[in-house]
């Protein structure tokens, strides 16, 4: 009898199911992380095309600091403080005005998180560091895109290698559909990564980011549901 998900031993089912459950939770946490980072780029909760444009291409009508104050950092300071910092940037981000007015706001609202001990966050206790963010917002840097791209390529490809490996043991899925489902996430992963770089060059490619992410999600959900069904539900029907 050929080995498939409906007749593998209980330990193997538990191993596969445990992996699929943890990966599903991780996928959900990744979605939440996207919503509270990229999804707040325009200052409104929920991922939109505008969020993607701001994240990768940038909001070039204003500075990077202004984009953050009106976007993902909006909830961290009252409107009057955000307005004062934006006005300081638009008036030239001068040192005298910084010392007289802006510094106190930065020290109160920003420095508790953005300090020398914050790790990956910029240190806003120093004016020279702040000035790096007072220029027009050009979105993600090439260095950050390269870093995130290689992390996603190496990480997500392993996730779908194992998910696809488990799914390949299904018995009730036609071969053509099975092969398509297994290949689909790799195609959409490449599309997803490429869309970040294309959107950096031109905001009209932002819709490709949505398409790439949606394709990955649909392939994952399909393979996950079918695999769990054949391990735990299908054997009950076969015994009848």
UniProtKB/TrEMBL annotation:
Keyword Iron-sulfur: no
Species assigned in the record: Candidatus Methylospira mobilis
Annotated keywords: Elongation factor, Membrane, Protein biosynthesis, Transmembrane, Transmembrane helix
Protein known as: Elongation factor-1 alpha
Membrane-spanning residues: 14-36, 151-169, 175-198, 205-226
Keyword Repeat annotated: no
A GO term, aspect molecular function: heme binding
Lineage: Bacteria, Pseudomonadati, Pseudomonadota, Gammaproteobacteria, Methylococcales
SUPFAM superfamilies: Cytochrome c
């Amino acid at each position: 009898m050929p080995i498939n998900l409906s007749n593998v031993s209980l330990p193997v089912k538990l191993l596969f199911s445990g992996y699929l459950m943890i990966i599903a939770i991780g996928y959900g946490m990744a979605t939440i992380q996207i919503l509270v980072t990229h999804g707040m780029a325009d200052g409104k909760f929920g991922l939109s095309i505008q969020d993607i444009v701001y994240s990768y291409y940038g909001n070039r009508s204003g500075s990077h600091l202004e984009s953050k104050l009106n976007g993902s950092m909006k909830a961290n300071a009252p409107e009057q403080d955000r307005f004062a910092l934006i006005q300081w940037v638009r008036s030239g981000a001068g040192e005298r005005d910084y010392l007289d007015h802006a510094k106190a706001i930065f020290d109160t609202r920003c420095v508790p998180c953005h300090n020398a001990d914050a790790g990956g966050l910029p240190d806003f206790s120093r004016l020279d560091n702040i000035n790096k963010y007072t220029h027009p917002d050009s979105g993600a840097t090439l260095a950050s895109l390269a870093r995130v791209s290689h992390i996603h390529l190496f990480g997500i490809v392993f996730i779908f290698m194992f998910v696809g490996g488990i799914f390949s043991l299904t018995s009730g899925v036609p071969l053509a559909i099975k092969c398509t489902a297994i290949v689909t996430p790799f195609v959409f992963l490449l599309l997803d990564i490429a869309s970040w770089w294309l959107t950096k060059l031109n905001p009209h490619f932002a819709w490709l980011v949505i398409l790439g992410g949606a394709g990955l999600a649909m392939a994952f959900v399909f393979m996950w549901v079918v695999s769990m069904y054949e391990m735990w539900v299908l054997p009950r029907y076969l015994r009848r």
